[in-house]
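If you are new to this repository, start here. Below is one unmodified record pulled from the training split, so you can see the exact layout before writing a loader.
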Amino acid sequence: MLYHTTWLVAKLDPIKYIFEKPCLSERIARWQVLLSEYDIVYVSQKSIKGSAITDFLADRANEDYESVSFDFPNEDLMVVLHIEEGSPNELNPWKVYFDGASNALGHGIGAVLISPNEKYYPTMARLNFNCTNNMAEYEALVMGLQAAIEMKADAINVYGDSALVICQMRGEWETRDSKLVPYKKLVTELSK
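And here is the target side for that same chain:
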């Protein structure tokens, strides 16, 4: 017999099963009797922390990193824009990237307006009404176009991952869903 306790650290549940199950099959019961001669205590392996990854990234942080300030002067503040743009031309248009998502957890939209000088103006919102994923995509497009209008963009290239919205706006597909018809009309008006 051993004069000290052996701590068995393992991720495998079968070993825990052998040590903790009172009635076992004949073969496993023999193993348990043989192992009970030794003072073995089963301990499950703790989860491996992700600190190795964070330590690695912290050691290789960029020197020009500026931390984000989360101190906002007003919680009801929707957007703050500082515009120092020249007038865009047809050769160098503004760009709008949009995306919307709708699922059981919520509905959200986002758009990024990129100026001809490569300045980024992200906008995002949470929708407080039930909608389909295609409706969320249209809402995101509307938000991106409205942001472009507020910035007085003359020429705009629009990019999105919704084939339905893009093809309907190009006129390649017709809009059959009655819920999407008002969105298409609104986007057509905003595009003029």
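Two things worth knowing about this chain: Residues 133-150 form the longest helix (18 residues). The domain at 94-191 is CATH 3.30.420.10 (Nucleotidyltransferase; domain 5).
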